[in-house]
Amino acid sequence: MKALISAVLCFLRLSACNLAYALQLVADPYPDKPRITFKPDGTFKITVFSDMHWGENPWDVWGPQQDANSTRLMKTVLPSEKPDFVVLNGDLITGENAFKDNATFLIDRIVAPLNAARIPFSSTQGNHDNQKNITHLQEILREQTVAPLSYTRVAPAGVGGEEGPGNYWVPVYEKTTDSTPTLILWFFDSRGGFTYGDNSTATAAMNAAWGPAENRGALAFVHIPPHLIQNLQATLNSTKEPGLNADALGSGSTQSTTDEADVGQDDAFWNSLNANVKNLHAVISGHDHGNEWCIREPTKNVIFCFDKHAGYGGYGDASWGYGVRNLLFSSADPTVGVQTWIRLEEGEVRANITLGAQYS
Ligand SMILES: *[C@@H]1O[C@H](CO)[C@@H](O)[C@H](O)[C@H]1NC(C)=O
Ligand SMILES: *[C@@H]1O[C@H](CO)[C@@H](O)[C@H](O)[C@H]1NC(C)=O
Ligand SMILES: *[C@@H]1O[C@H](CO)[C@@H](O)[C@H](O)[C@H]1NC(C)=O
Ligand SMILES: *[C@@H]1O[C@H](CO)[C@@H](O)[C@H](O)[C@H]1NC(C)=O
Ligand SMILES: *[C@@H]1O[C@H](CO)[C@@H](O)[C@H](O)[C@H]1NC(C)=O
Ligand SMILES: *[C@@H]1O[C@H](CO)[C@@H](O)[C@H](O)[C@H]1NC(C)=O
């Protein structure tokens, strides 16, 4: 208990705690799991499954059929893409249809293809993962229990707050023996309507442990796009910014846009992320199933990308197709651009671009 309190204090306020303990927390968040590393050929590939929306209408024929289709999609994509790491970017479950007694069984089914393929992964949670009979925390704890290669973690108490516990990072090393990571994957919990608690000093502890932020690259995953993305849709040029653009963004499509009083509530998140994390290749969201594009957000000069709707559950249109976003690092150098593209279940590749200074 004492260690836990000390860990929480450390995470929140570096000055209020034992520095060595904070560094240990940051430097080795997964003492019992294999380190995530680049391949010996210097590449690293991530495949993102987003908005799977498991568990719709289990009492009807079509609900379980959707889930069977989503499993088929995963079993088709995983052996053909052979990712080094997988991200499940929110709305794993349509919580509105979940039953208290068995909601978390759905997690077992979602992770089964990843367990079978022995691929490390982690998840974010979305607005549909927090409902009457399911919470983000329940999903995370179940995933940790049934998936040995899940890197999903719960933030220390106070960070993210009630109903929003899924804030964490996964360090990626070039080689297992390296003392510092070359890439940080950030995961943020985008529950609706949160207010900020105390500020986290995780990035300060990283800088103390690993040196300046500029030494590392980063990618950030969050289920719901920042609100600044909404107005950029009107500026899209499908030649420069390719990818399906079938979902008009409106109230609730991005963070803090459900009502007037909400607007700007995600500014603290957006400011902090962009001030403290360097070499941020992109911020990646799901939530709006008909969009696949990437665009530069001019106030922070950072690229934002939509995922691809991967689940047969959730709203959609058969013509949009189902698939994944892939991200391919060709080098562990954090300043080298990252290739990213949409791949449909049937194999079609589209919106293949390089995330870098030249884009958008
Ligand atoms: C959960 O329980 C409901 C109601 O009994 C049932 O229809 C559904 O198939 C169950 N789901 C799972 C994942 O076991
Ligand atoms: C399942 O996938 C098949 C093949 O793509 C499709 O024809 C069918 O409509 C899908 N069923 C559901 C319920 O999504
Ligand atoms: C929650 O689960 C209970 C029993 O497991 C069920 O009766 C109820 O309908 C569920 N609530 C919703 C909103 O689905
Ligand atoms: C958190 O950071 C913001 C922005 O820098 C600042 O305005 C706020 O006072 C800080 N909150 C706490 C509790 O330190
Ligand atoms: C869209 O981008 C292309 C390629 O840069 C450019 O040639 C074209 O003029 C742009 N279209 C508009 C409407 O700006
Ligand atoms: C994406 O484009 C790059 C550069 O043209 C090319 O080398 C790569 O093979 C393409 N990727 C896919 C999956 O088609």
UniProtKB/TrEMBL annotation:
Recorded GO MF terms: hydrolase activity, acting on ester bonds
Domain Calcineurin-like phosphoesterase: 44-290
CDD domains named in the record: MPP_Dcr2
Record region (Disordered): 240-260
The keyword Signal appears for this protein: yes
InterPro entries per the UniProt record, alphabetical: Calcineurin-like_PHP (IPR004843), Metallo-depent_PP-like (IPR029052)
Protein keywords: Signal
GO cellular component, one term: cytoplasm
Signal peptide interval: 1-22
PANTHER family registered for this protein in UniProt: METALLOPHOSPHOESTERASE DOMAIN-CONTAINING PROTEIN, PHOSPHATASE DCR2-RELATED-RELATED
Full protein name: Metallo-dependent phosphatase
Source organism per UniProt: Rhodocollybia butyracea
